Amino acid sequence: MASTKPSPDLRPARINALGEFAASIAHEVKQPLAAVKLNAEASLKWLEQDPPRIAEARAALQVVLQASVAAGDMVRSLQAMTSRAAPQRSLFFIDDAVREAVQLLRGELRRQGITLTEHYGLDHYQLDADRVQLMQVVINLVLNAIEARARTLALQTALVNGALCISVRDNGAGIAPALAERIYQPLFTTKHGGTGMGLTLCRSIAQAHGGSLWHTSDQAGTAFHLSFKEYTPWTPSRS
Protein backbone atom coordinates (compact mmCIF):
# COMPACT_ATOMS: atom_id res chain seq x y z
CA MET A 1 0.00 0.00 0.00
CA ALA A 2 1.40 3.38 -1.04
CA SER A 3 2.42 5.78 1.72
CA THR A 4 0.21 8.86 2.21
CA LYS A 5 2.94 10.82 3.95
CA PRO A 6 4.11 13.92 2.10
CA SER A 7 7.43 13.70 0.33
CA PRO A 8 10.28 15.19 2.41
CA ASP A 9 10.87 17.59 -0.48
CA LEU A 10 7.34 18.98 -0.08
CA ARG A 11 7.43 19.50 3.67
CA PRO A 12 9.40 22.80 3.67
CA ALA A 13 7.06 24.22 1.04
CA ARG A 14 4.01 23.20 3.07
CA ILE A 15 5.49 24.62 6.24
CA ASN A 16 6.24 27.90 4.44
CA ALA A 17 2.70 27.99 3.04
CA LEU A 18 1.21 27.41 6.50
CA GLY A 19 3.45 30.12 7.91
CA GLU A 20 2.33 32.59 5.26
CA PHE A 21 -1.33 31.71 5.84
CA ALA A 22 -0.99 32.14 9.61
CA ALA A 23 0.81 35.46 9.12
CA SER A 24 -1.91 36.57 6.70
CA ILE A 25 -4.70 35.83 9.17
CA ALA A 26 -2.84 37.59 11.98
CA HIS A 27 -2.28 40.62 9.79
CA GLU A 28 -5.78 40.90 8.32
CA VAL A 29 -7.88 40.43 11.45
CA LYS A 30 -5.71 42.67 13.64
CA GLN A 31 -7.32 45.92 12.51
CA PRO A 32 -10.98 44.81 12.65
CA LEU A 33 -10.36 43.46 16.16
CA ALA A 34 -8.68 46.73 17.12
CA ALA A 35 -11.75 48.58 15.83
CA VAL A 36 -13.98 46.32 17.94
CA LYS A 37 -11.95 47.11 21.07
CA LEU A 38 -11.70 50.87 20.51
CA ASN A 39 -15.38 51.32 19.69
CA ALA A 40 -16.59 49.02 22.48
CA GLU A 41 -14.57 51.12 24.94
CA ALA A 42 -15.99 54.30 23.41
CA SER A 43 -19.52 52.94 23.72
CA LEU A 44 -19.01 52.19 27.42
CA LYS A 45 -17.68 55.71 27.91
CA TRP A 46 -20.73 57.28 26.26
CA LEU A 47 -23.11 55.12 28.30
CA GLU A 48 -21.38 56.11 31.54
CA GLN A 49 -22.09 59.80 30.93
CA ASP A 50 -24.82 61.49 32.92
CA PRO A 51 -27.09 61.53 31.06
CA PRO A 52 -25.94 58.67 28.81
CA ARG A 53 -25.05 59.75 25.27
CA ILE A 54 -27.13 57.14 23.51
CA ALA A 55 -26.62 58.37 19.94
CA GLU A 56 -22.83 58.26 20.25
CA ALA A 57 -22.91 54.84 21.92
CA ARG A 58 -25.18 53.50 19.17
CA ALA A 59 -22.80 54.80 16.47
CA ALA A 60 -19.82 53.16 18.20
CA LEU A 61 -21.67 49.86 18.52
CA GLN A 62 -22.55 50.01 14.83
CA VAL A 63 -18.81 50.13 14.05
CA VAL A 64 -18.28 47.18 16.42
CA LEU A 65 -20.83 45.20 14.40
CA GLN A 66 -19.26 46.22 11.07
CA ALA A 67 -15.77 45.33 12.30
CA SER A 68 -16.79 41.92 13.62
CA VAL A 69 -18.48 41.07 10.31
CA ALA A 70 -15.42 42.34 8.40
CA ALA A 71 -13.07 40.13 10.46
CA GLY A 72 -15.08 37.02 9.60
CA ASP A 73 -15.34 38.01 5.94
CA MET A 74 -11.58 38.59 5.73
CA VAL A 75 -10.77 35.17 7.18
CA ARG A 76 -13.11 33.55 4.64
CA SER A 77 -11.48 35.60 1.88
CA LEU A 78 -8.00 34.44 2.92
CA GLN A 79 -9.16 30.81 2.99
CA ALA A 80 -10.50 31.21 -0.54
CA MET A 81 -7.26 32.80 -1.74
CA THR A 82 -5.22 29.98 -0.17
CA SER A 83 -7.31 27.38 -2.01
CA ARG A 84 -6.90 29.45 -5.21
CA ALA A 85 -10.63 29.99 -5.49
CA ALA A 86 -11.82 32.75 -7.78
CA PRO A 87 -12.83 36.04 -6.15
CA GLN A 88 -16.51 36.28 -5.19
CA ARG A 89 -17.44 39.05 -7.57
CA SER A 90 -20.42 41.34 -7.34
CA LEU A 91 -21.24 44.78 -8.74
CA PHE A 92 -20.85 47.58 -6.18
CA PHE A 93 -20.14 51.29 -6.02
CA ILE A 94 -16.44 51.61 -5.37
CA ASP A 95 -16.63 54.76 -3.22
CA ASP A 96 -19.14 53.06 -0.91
CA ALA A 97 -16.71 50.20 -0.25
CA VAL A 98 -13.78 52.57 0.32
CA ARG A 99 -15.81 54.65 2.80
CA GLU A 100 -16.79 51.49 4.69
CA ALA A 101 -13.15 50.40 4.92
CA VAL A 102 -12.08 53.83 6.19
CA GLN A 103 -14.83 53.77 8.82
CA LEU A 104 -13.13 50.78 10.46
CA LEU A 105 -9.92 52.81 10.79
CA ARG A 106 -11.23 56.08 12.21
CA GLY A 107 -10.74 55.03 15.82
CA GLU A 108 -7.10 54.11 15.18
CA LEU A 109 -6.49 57.35 13.28
CA ARG A 110 -7.88 59.37 16.19
CA ARG A 111 -5.84 57.36 18.69
CA GLN A 112 -2.65 58.03 16.72
CA GLY A 113 -3.49 61.70 16.19
CA ILE A 114 -3.32 61.34 12.40
CA THR A 115 -5.21 63.70 10.10
CA LEU A 116 -6.94 62.03 7.15
CA THR A 117 -8.31 64.00 4.21
CA GLU A 118 -10.66 62.25 1.80
CA HIS A 119 -11.60 63.10 -1.77
CA TYR A 120 -14.09 60.83 -3.51
CA GLY A 121 -14.55 61.08 -7.25
CA LEU A 122 -15.99 57.69 -8.19
CA ASP A 123 -19.53 57.88 -6.79
CA HIS A 124 -20.86 57.21 -10.30
CA TYR A 125 -18.66 54.19 -11.01
CA GLN A 126 -19.14 50.52 -10.15
CA LEU A 127 -16.64 47.71 -9.95
CA ASP A 128 -17.33 44.03 -10.62
CA ALA A 129 -15.06 42.59 -7.95
CA ASP A 130 -14.82 40.98 -4.53
CA ARG A 131 -15.93 43.79 -2.22
CA VAL A 132 -14.32 42.26 0.89
CA GLN A 133 -10.97 41.91 -0.86
CA LEU A 134 -11.07 45.50 -2.11
CA MET A 135 -11.71 46.66 1.46
CA GLN A 136 -8.75 44.54 2.62
CA VAL A 137 -6.49 46.43 0.21
CA VAL A 138 -7.71 49.86 1.33
CA ILE A 139 -7.32 48.95 5.01
CA ASN A 140 -3.81 47.62 4.42
CA LEU A 141 -2.68 50.71 2.51
CA VAL A 142 -3.95 53.07 5.20
CA LEU A 143 -2.40 50.93 7.95
CA ASN A 144 0.93 50.96 6.12
CA ALA A 145 0.85 54.75 6.17
CA ILE A 146 -0.01 54.76 9.88
CA GLU A 147 2.86 52.38 10.62
CA ALA A 148 5.22 54.60 8.59
CA ARG A 149 4.69 57.22 11.31
CA ALA A 150 2.87 59.56 8.98
CA ARG A 151 1.05 62.47 10.60
CA THR A 152 -1.15 63.30 7.63
CA LEU A 153 -2.80 61.03 5.08
CA ALA A 154 -4.70 61.80 1.90
CA LEU A 155 -7.05 59.26 0.35
CA GLN A 156 -8.39 59.92 -3.13
CA THR A 157 -10.54 58.04 -5.61
CA ALA A 158 -10.62 59.28 -9.20
CA LEU A 159 -10.76 58.30 -12.85
CA VAL A 160 -7.14 58.56 -14.05
CA ASN A 161 -6.16 57.85 -17.68
CA GLY A 162 -9.29 55.78 -18.19
CA ALA A 163 -8.85 53.64 -15.07
CA LEU A 164 -10.45 53.68 -11.63
CA CYS A 165 -7.74 54.68 -9.19
CA ILE A 166 -7.55 54.63 -5.38
CA SER A 167 -4.55 56.46 -3.94
CA VAL A 168 -3.27 56.71 -0.38
CA ARG A 169 -0.56 59.32 0.23
CA ASP A 170 1.38 59.90 3.44
CA ASN A 171 4.06 62.26 4.70
CA GLY A 172 6.12 59.47 6.27
CA ALA A 173 9.78 58.60 5.87
CA GLY A 174 9.45 57.22 2.34
CA ILE A 175 10.68 53.93 0.89
CA ALA A 176 14.29 53.44 -0.18
CA PRO A 177 14.70 52.62 -3.91
CA ALA A 178 16.56 49.42 -2.98
CA LEU A 179 13.39 48.14 -1.30
CA ALA A 180 11.00 49.14 -4.10
CA GLU A 181 10.12 45.56 -5.08
CA ARG A 182 11.15 43.70 -1.94
CA ILE A 183 8.28 45.26 0.03
CA TYR A 184 5.84 43.21 -2.05
CA GLN A 185 7.57 39.90 -1.29
CA PRO A 186 5.94 37.49 1.22
CA LEU A 187 7.21 37.76 4.80
CA PHE A 188 9.54 40.69 4.03
CA THR A 189 9.08 43.57 6.44
CA THR A 190 11.00 46.60 7.67
CA LYS A 191 8.65 47.15 10.63
CA HIS A 192 9.11 45.88 14.16
CA GLY A 193 6.49 43.19 14.71
CA GLY A 194 5.35 43.27 11.08
CA THR A 195 4.17 40.11 9.32
CA GLY A 196 5.39 41.05 5.85
CA MET A 197 2.09 39.98 4.28
CA GLY A 198 0.11 43.19 3.83
CA LEU A 199 1.47 44.42 0.50
CA THR A 200 1.85 40.86 -0.78
CA LEU A 201 -1.88 40.32 -0.29
CA CYS A 202 -2.72 43.73 -1.75
CA ARG A 203 -0.84 43.05 -4.98
CA SER A 204 -2.25 39.51 -5.25
CA ILE A 205 -5.79 40.85 -4.87
CA ALA A 206 -5.20 43.59 -7.43
CA GLN A 207 -3.79 41.15 -9.98
CA ALA A 208 -6.59 38.61 -9.39
CA HIS A 209 -9.03 41.35 -10.47
CA GLY A 210 -7.03 42.41 -13.51
CA GLY A 211 -5.78 45.51 -11.70
CA SER A 212 -2.40 46.78 -10.58
CA LEU A 213 -0.75 48.14 -7.44
CA TRP A 214 2.34 50.31 -7.38
CA HIS A 215 3.89 53.13 -5.39
CA THR A 216 5.90 56.31 -5.72
CA SER A 217 8.11 57.58 -2.92
CA ASP A 218 10.42 60.46 -2.11
CA GLN A 219 11.49 62.52 0.88
CA ALA A 220 7.99 64.01 1.13
CA GLY A 221 6.42 60.61 1.69
CA THR A 222 4.90 57.69 -0.19
CA ALA A 223 1.82 57.19 -2.35
CA PHE A 224 0.30 53.79 -3.13
CA HIS A 225 -2.00 53.51 -6.13
CA LEU A 226 -4.55 50.78 -6.87
CA SER A 227 -6.11 50.87 -10.34
CA PHE A 228 -8.63 48.93 -12.41
CA LYS A 229 -9.24 49.42 -16.11
CA GLU A 230 -12.52 47.47 -16.21
CA TYR A 231 -15.51 49.14 -14.57
CA THR A 232 -19.18 49.98 -15.04
CA PRO A 233 -20.37 53.61 -15.17
CA TRP A 234 -23.37 54.70 -13.12
CA THR A 235 -26.84 54.03 -14.48
CA PRO A 236 -30.17 55.57 -13.35
CA SER A 237 -31.29 52.15 -12.06
CA ARG A 238 -29.60 52.77 -8.69
CA SER A 239 -32.36 53.02 -6.08
UniProtKB/TrEMBL annotation:
InterPro entries: HATPase_C_sf, HATPase_dom, His_kinase_dom, HisK_dim/P_dom, HisK_dim/P_sf, Sig_transdc_His_kin-like_C. Its EC number is 2.7.13.3. It catalyses: ATP + protein L-histidine = ADP + protein N-phospho-L-histidine. One of its GO terms (molecular function) is phosphorelay sensor kinase activity. Pfam families: HATPase_c, HisKA. CDD domains: HisKA. Keywords: ATP-binding, Kinase, Nucleotide-binding, Phosphoprotein, Transferase, Two-component regulatory system. Residues 24-232 form the Histidine kinase domain. It comes from the Bacteria. PANTHER family: PEROXIDE STRESS-ACTIVATED HISTIDINE KINASE MAK3 (PTHR43065:SF10), SENSOR HISTIDINE KINASE (PTHR43065). This is histidine kinase. It comes from Duganella rivi.
